[in-house]
Amino acid sequence: MRKKAITLLRFSEWTLLILFIGFAVLISLPFSDMFNIDKDIRQAKSEGVYFDADMHFQTYFDKSVRLDGVVYNQKEIIVYMTGKQLGPYGKLPNKILVTTDSGATFESLGGGNTTNAFRSRGYFHFKEVPPGIKSITVHNEAYSESFSFNIALQGGDPS
Amino acid sequence: MKITTLSKKHIVTGHILRWCVIFLVLLYLLRAHYGANPWSLESVSHQALSSMEIPKASITSIVDSGQGIRMVLLVDRNHAMIHHFFISRPFGILWQSRGGGYGMPIDPKVLIDFRGGMSTFGHYRHYYYIGQVNDPRITTIKVTWQDGYEQNATLTEGVYHVARSVRISDDDQSQTTKTRLLVYDKEGVQLYNLTPEQREVRTL
User: Which stretches are transmembrane (chain B) (predicted)?
Assistant: First the structure.
């Protein structure tokens, strides 16, 4: 009787372990059948339109966000960002602003991202931007929170 | 099978180890699903506001909507905004935001207003009314729902809200024009009568 109880307990423990660990792995794996951001970035690099960023994180409304890089082909801008937060909510800013070296500001039109339990990698796009932009500031502010990243879009080795 | 003292120790260690791992992974899953400190309503509210890129505000009042769902009202006087969202209690001990409205501006020129909405949870529709109160004479606010049921709204610090759930099969949505907001002062004198056609009263 006691042995049966212990065997049942052991069985439940292993079952719980496998279920919980399995589920934890599922929600932590990076998975997307909609975007392949690395492929897009490789493609942009081969075309010479990708610009790498400084790679440091800033805090914005309890999320850690970072500018990964920018694609600029003189007509459109795509901003790639990574966000981190362990929790159910979005990890990237809802929208971002881009201010050019000549002072013009553009608002993101949309974007997309792939997300797991603690990390989100995504992009924001801007259409109809003027050619010849030398550098931009990727930023947003709301109430007393803000983030701001500078990146040069000319010179430097884009690969 | 003969159990020696040594293998008994191994069996107990095995149990302890497995339960430790189960507990840690459970904490990770809870955090990923419900956010940080989900047993604290303050923390859950703060995260819900943060996700909308809105600064933290304190909870002004909570009303019960039925079926285990409540509605939280937050007033941010520093930024002149009102937020509200529904919450439920998973496992009876955690809190979870179920969505609502954020960033409604506080306008001191509005004496009283009458705004509402509805959310569906399971087999019930949860209706709510919410508004600002800037006429200091107002002490009682009574709402008449579309089926005729009357209910007092909870008035706190210049805002009121009231929520009620109706089973979908019992709900007649054709009567929504019949809802009313009756507003009284402390003597019971009726001050305002708001309808879906006239949703606010402003000072001139």
Answer: 12-30
